[in-house]
Task: structure prediction
Amino acid sequence: MAFLSFVGRVLFVSVFVLSAWQEFNEFGVDGGSAAKALKPKFNVFSKHLTTHTGFQVPAFEIKFLVAGAIALKALGSLLFVFGSTLGATLLILHQLIATPILYDFYNYDIEKKEFLHLFIKFTQSLALLGALLFFVGMKNTSPRRSSTTKKAAKTKTT
Result:
């Protein structure tokens, strides 16, 4: 059972590992294609956030956001494979930050092709988030074996 759990975790994080690897290889000095694709989406998200909450997002280079996403995915995946809740928490943090920015279906009309594409990706990302939350919940509620508690040896009666 432990082996199957390990294989499941490896298959699960393959999505994050492959994404981080691709972004790392394309990073370059300007953040690569990920930064170019993220910049307009982040600007729109920042304007929405400022409009609806009054919170002003500080200005920074998008390549640092991409580098942070790569680090969260890589480190979170590595820790998650070995069953760490810290790894799952890092991946949850990545999903909570990246999902509403990358899959901004709410900026498109429902009849447009982009709306459906982005909405499907958004719900897939929510499914990954749900699986991570399930993992953390199961880790926190499963009974732990205590190596210090030993049962008393039974005595033989003759």
About this structure: Helices lie at 2-25, 32-53, 62-81, 85-102, 113-141. The chain has a mean pLDDT of 89. The chain is about 70% helix and 0% strand.
